[in-house]
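In this section we walk through a basic example: taking a raw amino acid sequence and producing a predicted 3D structure, encoded as discrete structure tokens. The instruction is simple. Fold the sequence below.
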Amino acid sequence: MAVVLGQALTRLRDRTGLSQKEAAEKLDTTQQTWARWETAGNMKFTDVLTQQRAVAALGFTMADFEAEVDNVMMNRLPDPKLQSIEDGPRLDFSLPIDGVVRASPQGTMGIYDGASDETLDLNKVFDSNTRGLWAMGDSMYPLIEDGTLVTYKLTGVPRRNKLCVIRFNDGQYLVKKFIRMGATDIECVEMEPVDFSGRTVYAEKPVFFRLSDIRAVYPASVRID
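The resulting token sequence is shown next.
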């Protein structure tokens, strides 16, 4: 399988017109490391997060990579319609920023005036690689309430102690807090209600998922309640 993954990576890189050295520089790694990924000389590329980082550096999504893997396995030519996301459509909208919110010594919140013409370019938040999921259940409460819309990126990799979306081989999705990627499993955190002196508090509970059951792990960058 490592050979197939490497050939699919080569096909994506060829579409960008980048050399191995240029692609490696985008990922802040060496040309030798990248070359070993493409030739199955380094088994590190069988790691899902490594694949995501490399594919994102080329400007493609994991869905693009998986499609190319299928093409290699079926001995088909590369998909002629496949484009780098950097060449894809760009959403055109921004959000006015009214100011900066700070907490006073008493703990109340106040809105302080900021630059009247300041805006946030939401292309940095939502783009053609942004997807959404409705989070159902209470396993992540109070971080995520039942019915919250969680958005995530098809590019990039999850960061420690940040939200992530896990996509399983059977099509199921879960939202958890990412901790680390091990050799055989991924460690995450969910929230567990605990009785404390008659009050319900929430404590972090470690949960583990087998890498063999996982198709991809995405960074969840925005929550909309």
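Looking at the output, two observations stand out. The longest strand covers residues 185-196. The chain is about 25% helix and 35% strand. In the next section we compare this with other chains.
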